[in-house]
Amino acid sequence: MRTSFRTGLLALSLWTVVQPVQAQDVTFRIAHFLPAVASAQKAILEPWCAELGRQSGGRIRCAFFPSMQLGGTPAQLADQVRNGVADIVWTAPGYSPGRFPRTEALELPGILPLGGVAGGRAIWAFYGQHLKEEYKDYKVLAMHGDGGMNIHTASKRLAGPDDFKGVKLRSPNRSIARTLTALGATPVAMPPAQVTEAIAKGVVDGASAVWEVLLPTKLDEVTRHHLESPADRPAMGATVLVLLMNKQKYDALPADLKAIVDRNSGEPLVERYGKAWDDASTIARNRIRSLPGHTLTVMEAGQYEILLKRTAVVQTEWLADARARNINGEALIAAAREAAAKSLR
C-alpha cells in the first residue's frame, strides 16, 4: 500500500514537471519592412499564424512588428532574427549586398520566370539544392520571389532600353542596381518605405518595384508610367525574399509544435506566397489600367532582347565576384536556369 502511494506521488510529481513543457505556449515576434496592409502580412503571415494557432490549440501565437517597428533598417533584419531581436523576419537577402552571394544567381537578368508561383517554385528548388549552407544560421521557413522587376516612373515613359539613360531609379538589390547601370540609368538604393516620398520630392525619377508593393506603399499616387517584361519571357531582374526563423527559438520548441511549424512551412508556404503575390499583382495592374493619366507598357520582344544583351555585363560582374569567393558561379547560373525551366512545366 505504501509502495503504491509512493509510486503515485512520483508519477504525480513527474506529471507536474513534464506537463508545462508539453503545454508550452509560444509567441512568435514577426518583423518585416512593409506596412501591415501589405500582402506579406495580411494575405500570408496572418493566415499562416492563424493556422498555426488552430492546429496547436491556441498554443502558438504571433505578434507583428511591420514597418521596422523593432528598429533598425531592412538590411539589418537578417541580423535581428539571428540575434533573437525578432523570432521570425521576412526580408530580402539582397538588402545586405554580398552577404548571401549564391542567392544572387537567382536575381540576375533573364533568370527567373515572371510570376509569384513559378518564381517561388524555382527559388525553393534552388534553395534545396544549393543554398542550405548559405542559410545554416537560420531556420528557413520559406523562400520565394517578388514576381519580377517592373519600372514605375513619375513623368518619363519608358518603353525600351534606350529610355533608361539618365533616369534615376530606386534599386532593391545589387543585381538590379548593376542592371540599371548597364542601361545608363542611375540606381539609388533605398528601402520600400522611403521610395514614394523620394519620388514625390524628385530625389529619384521612379523605382524598380514589383506590382505587389505598388499599392501598400502608395507608389501609384506618385508614378504615372509603368513598364514590364513580355509575359512569356524571364524577368528583367528579381528580388528573392525569405522568411527566416531564429534557430534557437525553433530548436527550443516542443516536438509537437515543431511538427506544426514544419507542416505549414516549406513548399506549402512558398505556394501560399506565390499565389498571394500573383493575386496582388493582378489587383495592382488592373488598378493602374483604370486610373486616368497612367500608361502601362509591355516591352516589345525585340527591345527585350536588346535589353538582355546590354545587361549581359551584370552576369559577367557577378561571375567575377563568385570566382573571388571560390564559388562556381557558372554551375549556379545553370542550376538556376534549370530550376526556372522546371517551374514552368
In short:
By secondary structure, the chain is an alpha/beta fold. The protein has helices spanning 2-22, 39-55, 77-82, 116-131, 174-182, 192-200, 211-214, 247-251, 255-263, 267-290, 301-310, 312-324, 329-343; strands at 26-31, 60-65, 88-91, 138-145, 151-153, 168-171, 186-189, 206-208, 225-228, 240-246, 295-298.
What brief labels describe this structure?
TRAP transporter substrate-binding protein; single chain; 46% helix; TRAP_DctP_sf; D-Maltodextrin-Binding Protein, domain 2; 345 residues; alpha/beta; disordered N terminus; 2 domains; 6-stranded mixed beta sheet; 5-stranded mixed beta sheet; 11 strands
Structure notes:
This protein is α/β, with parallel strands linked by helices and 345 residues long. The protein folds into two domains: 26-145 and 239-280, Bacterial extracellular solute-binding protein, family 7 (D-Maltodextrin-Binding Protein, domain 2, 3-Layer(aba) Sandwich), CATH 3.40.190; 151-237 and 289-343, D-Maltodextrin-Binding Protein, domain 2 (3-Layer(aba) Sandwich), CATH 3.40.190. Helices cover 46% and strands 15% of the residues. The strands form two sheets. The protein has a six-stranded mixed beta sheet with strand order 7-6-8-5-9-11, with helices on both faces. Strands 2-1-3-10-4 form a five-stranded mixed beta sheet. α2 runs antiparallel to α10 (267-290), α4 (116-131) runs antiparallel to α10 and α4 packs antiparallel against α13. It is globular, with a radius of gyration of 23 Å.
